[in-house]
Design a protein that fits this description.
By secondary structure, the chain is mostly beta strands. It has four helices and 53 strands. The strands form eleven sheets. It has a nine-stranded mixed beta sheet. Strands 10, 12, 13, 16, 19 and 21 form a six-stranded antiparallel beta sheet that branches. Strands 11, 14, 15, 17, 18 and 20 form a six-stranded antiparallel beta sheet that branches.
């Protein structure tokens, strides 16, 4: 059933709207003027238009960012200016008391609300007027509208599409129509009714500012843990009316009315509701009472699979309610232990349904499946692939005889390996988690693309679409990477942290080629930016460490807890960034003579440490969203590698050791951390799973004239240099040809010069025309290769 509601102007300008109550910029509406002309427009936010007014005046604003006058109680028709956002235009109209604004000339007929670098709405977030968009020019509309109009707002009853088999909720008992109704909350600092279902009160919440429930038009219930902690002010931690921190939760409970089931018949019950959330470290529970709230015997953990710092998630949730009888006085309670960011709920139903449904927990918000440890791995470094994926019975029937198959295929679809795991019985509501296969796969060594496919098998499963998951990875020539570079479009920073780090970890199985030739870290490819489009002055320290996870916790700690360091620095450089150069996002660092010789069976981490000069600045590092592509989420992979024995829930509900892991190894995905200006080498770096850093490590073996000769004596002066730089070179023998190649920090060759008959000479380069920055001089001689670094000022 389609939900409809109507806003209309009577008199000169009439506006008729029909829409399902979900925020959308895609829904089209029509303005009909008194001369019968119809104009298509689009709504910006249906929840923003409220109030009733009559005898409204039309104001024709030729410039949307110009001061608006005589607008109190008026309808503003404004042309969108270049450099002035639609949201800002709406704010200006709101500030002078307009009851509606129609913004002409918007891109794609849409209204975009501005957000700051942390994702908080900074424009268009607190409006009390109707906001509409019109992609075309409004000249004809202005003529037809005239100068006067009457506005009236009608909000009829919200109708929703009822789920099949609903036995409670069909009459609006769970949609919070205008308030809590018979529902109760336990305090004023947590759950609350919000007429617009707003999610944007707290700092750092997300760019999505409303729940998208079907009955958004009559409100929803929201618990904003972020606002409770910071009162909407960035950096204002532990200062709100309900602070949250490690082991400190902002707790709140939402309780349903008592539900009399005596007149109903059912085979099985599900509680269905709509939710929107963003997770940091909150806990979510459903409590069930069968005696009208006297006792709540069943406590069901929900939303447990959402990762730390998740993206915004909204979905319909169905929870099986077990062992419920018609003579029970049913009552349920949501218990939110909030530690950032928010949880909003709406549209509750009890549904009569009996279904067998087991699934793999591999959807975007509930992902836990092991796959290859990198997006791309060099063929010389083929690693093992541990096999693990969480399986859940989300139906209300016992699932007997469940098994899971893992298959490794090449890009032609040919099966290279296969393994299986028997689960036996999985009872309703049970999550069989952390269960490793006895077998592991070995990564192929042929260059190409590969697929790892998990398939869940149960003959009686009525919903087979959630029984399969495919992960992709690549085997290449010489590149380690955590994501495809083209996907690294997000600029990542830790809120309000001047000094923070981002990086990636890679496991080197072989320090030499099959023929015994030494392998080196030859090049790094890094994604670095400033505050969005803003310039940042300072530097980024780039370090490579050997890392040994001595305490097997998949974090990079300063030491193992008793003073033995976990990491040893093997390479370091700095990227000096001044002013507009921060617009460059793809940096390539040639290590040259500082190449790092690789070791067998050694983990390496490549880390970017931001060191901006101003306390208010941040460097941002480029990354790919693992919510959009779970191949970039390495949480389960690191877990599967790193646990000696794995504890989990046994089928009887108790906690115990469900498998012994012979691997006891360490792998890591993207890592990040914060600190001070001088703690780069001891800063704790923890695994980050909701994005993958653009932080590639390129390896190679050096042969022929590219062999590094560390005995070549070389110095560069003056350093820094302004006009000329001299390379003081001392060779054992005369070299007929010497090539000097100047490379900038992005790996681009900016100057090449050849010299002949060189032994002990000062070779001059004119660098006056080079931009300010750091450069590497690659020096190729008949005695081998070396390099030197200088700064151009």
């Amino acid at each position: 059933m389609k939900k409809t509601y109507t806003h209309f102007f009577t008199g000169v300008l009439t506006l008729l709207l029909g829409v399902v109550c979900v925020q959308s910029v895609d829904a089209q509406y029509t303005i009909t003027t008194t001369d019968g002309t119809q104009y298509p427009i689009f709504i910006g936010d249906p929840g923003q238009f409220e109030g009733v007014a009559t005898a409204a005046t039309i104001e024709l604003a030729s410039s949307s960012c110009s001061a608006m006058t005589n607008s109190n109680g008026s309808i503003v028709i404004a042309d969108l200016d270049t450099g002035c956002s639609a949201a800002r235009t709406a704010e200006l109209a709101n500030d002078v008391g307009a009851i509606a604004v129609i913004i002409c000339g918007t891109t794609d007929n849409s209204i975009g609300f501005e957000t700051d670098a942390n994702g908080s709405v900074v424009a268009g977030s607190n409006l009390n007027l109707g906001v509409f968009a019109m992609g075309a020019d409004c000249a004809d509309l202005k003529v037809s509208a005239g100068t006067e109009a009457t506005l009236e707002l009608l909000v009829p009853e919200c109708d929703v599409m009822l789920p099949e088999g609903v036995i409670w909720g069909a009459n609006g008992e769970g949609e919070f129509d205008g308030g809590l109704g018979d529902w109760t909350i336990d305090n004023d600092n947590g759950f609350r009714y919000d007429v617009k279902g707003k999610l944007d009160r707290g700092a750092y919440n997300s760019t999505v500012n409303q729940i998208g429930s079907p009955t958004l038009c009559n409100g929803a219930v929201v618990a904003d843990s972020s606002f409770g902690d910071n009162a909407g002010e960035p950096g204002n931690f532990l200062s709100g009316n309900c602070p949250a921190d490690n082991n400190i939760f902002c707790e709140t409970r939402l309780t349903s009315p008592v539900i009399d089931l005596s007149t109903t018949t059912f085979d099985g019950l599900f509680l269905q509701f709509f939710q929107a959330l963003r997770q940091f470290n909150s806990e979510y529970y459903l409590l069930v009472s069968k005696d009208g709230g006297a006792t709540f015997e069943d406590t069901i953990a929900i939303n447990s699979g959402f990762e730390t710092n998740s993206n915004h998630i909204q979905e319909i949730v169905s929870v099986p309610l077990l062992n419920i009888d018609p003579d029970d006085q049913l009552q349920f309670r949501l218990w939110y232990r909030g530690y950032y960011y928010y949880w909003a709920v709406d549209d509750f139903f009890l549904v009569n349904r009996q279904i067998g449904d087991v699934r793999l927990n591999t959807d975007a918000g509930n992902f836990f499946a092991s796959h290859a440890a990198n997006w791309e791995t060099p063929s010389s470094q083929a690693d093992i692939i541990p096999l693990l994926v969480d399986v859940e019975n989300i139906g209300n029937l016992d699932a007997e005889g469940v098994s899971l198959t893992a298959t490794l295929l090449n890009e032609a679809g040919v099966t290279l390996d296969e393994a299986s795991l028997d689960y036996g019985l999985i009872t309703p509501g049970f999550v069989d988690q952390n269960r490793l296969f006895d077998e592991t796969f070995t990564m192929p060594t042929d260059i190409g693309s590969y697929r790892l496919v998990y398939t869940l098998n149960w003959e009686e499963d009525e919903e087979p679409l959630n029984n399969s998951y495919t992960s992709n990875f690549k085997v290449g020539d010489n590149v380690f990477s955590k994501c495809e570079a083209a996907d690294a479009t997000a600029r990542i920073a830790f809120p309000d942290q001047q000094y923070f780090s981002l990086g990636a970890g890679y496991h080197v199985a072989n320090g030499t080629t099959a023929a015994g030739t030494q392998l080196y870290i030859e090049k790094l490819r890094l994604g670095i930016s400033g505050n969005a489009a803003d310039a940042v002055s300072g530097s980024v320290n780039v370090s490579v460490y050997e890392w040994n996870d001595l305490n097997i916790n998949a974090d990079v700690d300063a030491d193992d807890g008793v003073g033995i360091p976990e990491r040893v620095k093997v390479y370091e450089t700095s990227i000096l960034v001044f002013g507009p150069d921060t617009g460059l996002e793809d940096y390539i660092i040639e290590l040259g003579a500082d190449r790092v010789a690789l070791k067998d069976n050694q983990n390496y981490i490549v880390v970017m440490h931001g060191l901006p000069l101003a306390a208010t600045d941040q460097y941002r590092f480029m990354a790919a969203d693992s919510g959009a592509n779970p191949d970039y989420n390495f949480a389960a992979t690191a877990f599967a590698f790193g646990q000696g024995s794995v504890d989990g829930n046994l089928p009887d509900g108790s906690l115990g050791t469900i498998t012994d892991n012979p691997l006891n190894m360490s792998r890591i995905g993207t890592i990040g951390g914060t600190g001070t200006a001088d703690d780069n080498d001891t800063r704790r770096l923890f695994q980050v799973n909701n994005f993958a850093a653009l932080c590639e490590m390129h390896i190679s073996s050096l042969t022929g004239t590219e062999d590094i000769n560390e005995d070549i004596a070389v110095s560069v002066f003056p350093n820094p240099a302004s006009n000329n730089v001299f390379v003081d070179l001392a060779l054992e023998n005369v070299s007929d040809n010497v090539n000097l190649q100047v490379v900038d920090i992005q790996g681009r060759v900016v100057m090449t010069q050849n010299f002949t008959n060189v032994k002990t000479d000062k070779l001059q380069l004119n660098v006056a025309n080079l931009n300010t920055g750091v450069y590497v001089i690659n020096i190729r001689t008949e005695e081998g290769f070396t390099s030197a670094r200088f700064v151009k000022n």
